Amino acid sequence: MNSQNDKTIYMMGIGGIAMGTLAAMLKEKGYRVTGSDQNLYPPMSTHLENLRIPMFQGYRAENLQAAAPDLVVIGNVIRRDNPEAVYVLEHGLAYVSMPQAIERFFLPIHRSMVVAGTHGKSTTSSLLAWILDCAKMEPSAFIGAFVKNWHSSYRLGLGEYIVIEGDEYDTAFFDKGPKFLHYRPSLGIITSIEYDHADIFPDYNAVLAAFRRFVNLFSADSHLIVNADDANCLALAKECKGAVIAYGESARADWRLVELKHHPGEIRFKYLDPHSRQHEMTTKLAGRHNLSNTMAVIAAASVVGLSPEQIQKGLLTFNGVSRRQDIIGESNGILVIDDFAHHPTAVQETILALKNHFPDRRLIAAFEPRTNSSRRRVFQDAYAEAFDYADCACIKQPPGLESISQSERLDTRKLVEAIRQKKQEAYYFENTQLLLEFLTGYCQAGDLVLCMSNGSFDGLPSKLFDAIRGTG
Length: 472
Known about the structure:
472 residues, globular
């Protein structure tokens, strides 16, 4: 342990992916780290246990008294009336938010590359960090998901850059601004801007205002990379003081995708660089949305001097991100895939991607609308369109609907009926057990079952796989 780091940092909400990732990074830097959470569960709890980071189950003032921390990092799940938060405030303990901690401990020694946008942040930031890693640039990284190549959600490198997944969600109970406002971008990516997070953004204009604040962070010597196929991104980019680079299929793109061909297990594509030179590459990532993410990464990696050959090497060796088209396994000809998709656009793009990637399979989409936004009626009509490419849609009633007023609540039975009116198979399920029993009897050889939820889905993907191979 470095003597100058011989201090204790206490993490409130340590079990979340972002807070747990920061805890691991601080531990690796030599700090004593401890923390608490209401619910601690794998894989993060296991990861922290392996790092010998002690954790308290539940929030109590006594936890802080025992830890005697030099600094408290307060996660955005913590409310002001949390007993530990009350203790921190009443006793004058030093505290920061998670983004402030990243800013304090990592940005003074790195230039930040911040990946923002409604969709694709985890995949894009992970792919960019991995390509820089393969090119021996030794980046650091802070990702909101586990990167399979590293078996971790972070990396501490000695290089110039840190890649950060930049979230527009609020920071803490004492800072309701977006997290990405703390990350001092020298290079940034905006993949897309759509309405999301209905619990904190009342309308689309509020979302747009958050991204406008992000764009206004860029200095004259910085680079902002935006999706040319998203009119909202292009419009905001005009306000940027730095160099703006656009990517996509649009004629307005500096890095322009001009041709793609789907093959089983891969996509081969051609693109033009800003000098109108054509390049050809191959990716194992499925779907047009991931191809868009890849174009963003190509542009970013090129800005820092990587060649197409270096980018292609990293692209072909990238194993993806956990819960992003994550293959659980195949048994008796039935393939089970787990995915984090929850926004209607992400659901639709994920289904289409896998339909193209596995063209000979019947695709069964099992969906649990679990987020604060997805459980609201604001997406009722959009979800009815999101399953167009599925051969069968299975919609599970989400938990926690009682916390949302009847007038704002998503009607899952009505959603199933709307899908059926389009002459598609669709089924409603009151709970995960009923859905599991249905899928176990319904699936047959040649099927692909896509399970989509931003929560655990009560373990459905692994339980289904165990059931079809006869071990459940």
